[in-house]
């Protein structure tokens, strides 16, 4: 049977496949060296331990590893298999030499999730900083809260740092809050130099996008798989879905599992640090997101 007018149009004009690309395809590669040189110039007065990067990412914390292949045949879900797309946002902050990884910030949809109430959890005692909103995403108010806390900590330590961030609408500069902003007073950055990456360059210049977040998600999947195997071996049945409290425990373990060498390699891959300090060479070699996971698997 015919697939309709669209299929006939493609056959008539010999259109077989439309190639799509993500953010990397919109990068102006000719302007990239000048962008990189400009950022290096801004970072030259900072030591490696004082150059920081932050970024957020969505995590479907209850998505079982076996679900990744259920759509391969005809784009359909296998009978009896329901994909769990429950998502939270994880916000990551680390410095260039990997010596410091900030506590994870986890943003969910519920102010007090059911797992917190059932276990009488005080949110302030969690190993992560938990926040919430309807979209479970980083908003301007949460961004300003993070900047205020980081600036205050750096002021107490007597440090001045550079913080690199993408220029998405949820990361506005404190001096230029969004229109109709009704959140807390914007912070005054006395110990933070906020540097925004040029538009459409995060796929090349964002350090956390060069493999750090990918390594975190790989480590989380490994922790989740270990949980499933342990539960099945003990109870001889499929494990129940993770609640947000159990997932936070796995997130913390996954974040702590990323070694400093992995973070350093990702910063090398961005090509920014080589011009700042001879300790790190501006390498363009390809980087595998989870080498430490492969090593751990070979040892076991």
What coarse outline follows from CA principal-axis ratios?
Answer: globular
Structural class: alpha/beta
Task: Give the end-to-end Cα distance, rounded to a whole number of Å.
Answer: 53 Å
Count up the helices.
9
Radius of gyration: 22 Å
What percent of residues are in strands? 5-15%
Tally of strands: 6
Give the integer mean of the pLDDT values. Answer: 80
Order of helices and strands: HHEEEHEHEEHHHHH
Give a quick account of the main beta sheet: strands, pairing sense, barrel closure.
Answer: 6 strands, mixed
Strands of the widest sheet, in order across it, are 4-3-2-1-5-6
The low-pLDDT segments are 20-25, 67-81, 278-290
| Integer tally of domains | 1
Q: In which range does the helix fraction lie?
A: 25-40%
Tell me what you see in this structure.
This protein is an alpha/beta fold. It has one domain (54-66, 81-299). It is 35% helix and 12% strand. The chain has nine helices and six strands. The chain has helices at residues 5-12, 32-43, 114-118, 140-157, 202-205, 212-235, 244-257, 260-270, 291-299, and strands spanning 51-59, 88-95, 105-108, 129-132, 161-165, 192-196. The chain has a six-stranded mixed beta sheet, sandwiched between helices. Strand 3, helix 3 and strand 4 (129-132) form a beta-alpha-beta unit. Helix 6 packs across helix 7. Mean pLDDT is 80; it is low at 20-25, 67-81 and 278-290.
